[in-house]
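User: quick one, fold this
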Amino acid sequence: MHGTDLASLRGQLAVVTGAASGIGAAIAESCAMYGMAVLLADVEEEALERTVTSLRRRGATATGRVVDVGDPLQVASLAEEAYASGETVRLLFNNAGVGVVRSFLETTLEDWRWTLEVNLWGVLHGVRAFLPRMLEQRCRARIVNTASAAGLLAPADLSAYAVSKHGVVALSESLQAELAAAASDVRLVVLCPGLVRTNIHQAERNRPRRHHNPDEILDRGDELAEAMEAAMTPEELTRILFAALERGDFLVCSHGETPDQLRARCERLLSGEGPPPPWPDQASGEAD
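Assistant:
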């Protein structure tokens, strides 16, 4: 294991995307708790300002920047700002994400473009913008990519989301192998949470005009609202994540059922079986 001494992070810089609320805001708060300066990025300017103000009131060194992670130039500019400060970037959290809840046939091309642009390309842009300089620092550093349990499984009605998150897992695993082979001080961590109480089911509020759907296409994200009420909190998830950073884990599954579900999926696939019906009342529907 290649663990992180959390006490050594004091006075260093953490960069967090998708930091205005939810998981990103909780990560930023934890970084500040360990004495790190935090550079927060998000597309939601007002929410970002509130989070930055809250951190500063508690004595943290926090800066907010409006960034669309789907734009490589904006992410490159974020990296320039981070390194212009003269501080060492020890932790990079590529956390920004969106979710579209629709069946495959209901999922539009704009849904696919937007989901992949943020969830996969956003992570890729972050890694490409920061990794070369993190390697030059010659000190232990971590890049934490937020995927999802859907990056290990393949739930129904989440095709675009699952594809994007599988991509994040694959990118992280492949790059981790390269860095480990080079005995690099920079390592990857891939976070695969189950359901967490965030606003991702309301992600439509941040959909850019270039990816708008026709008015008759309805979002089904609100169907998750009730489940969100009973979900793990971002603060609980962040405690799990930072404990994993300290241990040096590569894959972080926040929900205990995910490893068992992954094993079952692998066994089904290796035996040649397809996925089971997603809902119990479909189990009796035999093909003619």
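User: anything notable?
Assistant: The longest helix spans residues 109-137.
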